[in-house]
Amino acid sequence: MAKALRSLAGDVVAITGGARGIGRATAAALIARGARVAIGDIEADLAQGTAQELGAGTIGLPLDVTDRASFATFLDEVESRLGPLDVLINNAGIMPLGAFVEETDPCAQRLVDINVHGVLFGSKLALERFIPRRRGHLVQLASALGKFGLAGGATYAATKHAVVGLSEALRQEYRPLGIDISVVMPTAVKTELGSGLAETRAFKAVEPEEVAEAIVEALQTGRFEVYVPRSLSRMVRLTVLMPRRVNEAVARLLKSDRVLSNLDHLARAGYEERMTHTIGGAPVPAPEAAQPEPEPAGPAPAQAEREKEAV
Question: Quick one: 12-310 is in which CATH superfamily?
Fold first, then answer.
C-alpha cells in the first residue's frame, strides 16, 4: 500500500537563492500546494519582485548566505512574518567553470563560501529551530557532480561532494529527532547557471520545474536521495559497480566527459558576466579559440637540409 503523501498546506518554507531558476520554480510549486513561502536572495530587489509576481503572500528578503548574521536575520524575519519554520531549502549556489589551474583564488574562495559555507550556516541555523520542536525538513541542493567529478568543474564538483557528505552525516545525526534531510542531485538544469553546457546522448538538461517537482515529492515523502531525472540514480549505482577504466571508456565514447569543458561561451556569456561581479573579478578566463600557426613560406634551412638528406 502506497504511503500517503504529507500535506504541505500551511507549511512555512524558506528558499535561498530563490529569486530565479530552481529557487523560483520551487517557490511556485510549493505555493501551488498551499505552502507559505519566503525567498531570500543576494539581489534583494529581484527577490522582492519575484515574491510579488508569485503572490499568495510570498515574501522576498535580502540574504547573503556567506554571512551568518545575514542568514540568521533572514530566518528571524521569515518566522516573524510567516510563523515557525518548517522547511529550509539551501538552494543558493554558483558554478563558474574552466580549467582548474586557470581558476583564480578569489573564484575558488567564492565557490566554497557560497556553495559550502552558505549551506553550513543555513543548516545550523535551521536545525537550531527544528531540534526543540522535534520536526522540520532540511533540503540541500547538490548536483549529480556530488557523486562524481568532470573536467572543467573541479572546484564546483568538490563543493557538491561536500554537500552530499554533509547531508549523509546530518541524516544519521538528526533523523532520530524527527528531522528529515533530503539531498537533491540534478543533472544540468536549463537555467542561466546551466547555460552553454554541451548535451550528449547520455547527458540531457532538465527544466527547473522538474527539479521543483522532485523537491516537492521529497517534502511529501521524506525521501533522502533525490535524483533528477530519477533515472540518474541507476546510472550512479552502475558506475559504482563498474571498474574505473570501463567508466572512463564509456564516458569518452558518449562524450559525457566533455560536458563541462566543451562550453558554448556565447550562450554562457550572461552568466559569466554576472559571475564577474559576484566574485569581484573574472572567475575563470574563457579559453581562446586555438589559432593555426601561419604556414612558413618554405622549410627552415636546417629542416631543408634534413629533407634533402632524407631524399
Answer: NAD(P)-binding Rossmann-like Domain (3.40.50.720)
How far apart are the C-alpha atoms of 74 and 61, rounded to whole Å? Answer: 7
d(CA 259, CA 228): 17
The answer to whether 284 and 99 are in contact (CB under 8 A) is: yes
Q: Using one digit for the tens of pLDDT, what is the confidence trace for 127-163?
A: 999 999 999 999 999 999 999 888 889 999 999 999 9
- Which among 169, 180, 183, 187 is positioned nearest to 221, based on CA atoms? 180
Q: Which amino acid makes up residue 169? A: A
Each domain of the chain, given as residue ranges in start order, spans 12-310
Burial annotation 252-283 (CB, 10 A radius, 16+ → b, else e): eeeebbbbbbebeeeebeebbeebeebbeebb
Q: Which residue has the cell 541507476?
A: 234
Q: Measuring CA to CA, how many Å separate 40 from each of 5, 89, 152, 175, 221?
A: 27, 10, 29, 26, 25
Separation CA 63–CA 88 (nearest Å): 13
174 in Cβ contact with 181 (< 8 Å): yes
Hey, which residues are catalytic here? Answer: 156
The rounded radius of gyration (Å) of the Cα atoms in the chain is: 23
Residue whose cell numbers read 554541451:
198
CA distance 91 to 244: 31
Q: What is the mean pLDDT of residues 278-306?
A: 43
Q: How far apart are CA 173 and CA 226, in angstroms?
A: 19
Identify the residue whose cell numbers are 520554480. Answer: 25
Q: What is the pairing mode between strands 180-186 and 59-62?
A: unpaired
Determine the Cα–Cα distance for residues 85 and 125; give it in Å rounded to an integer. 11
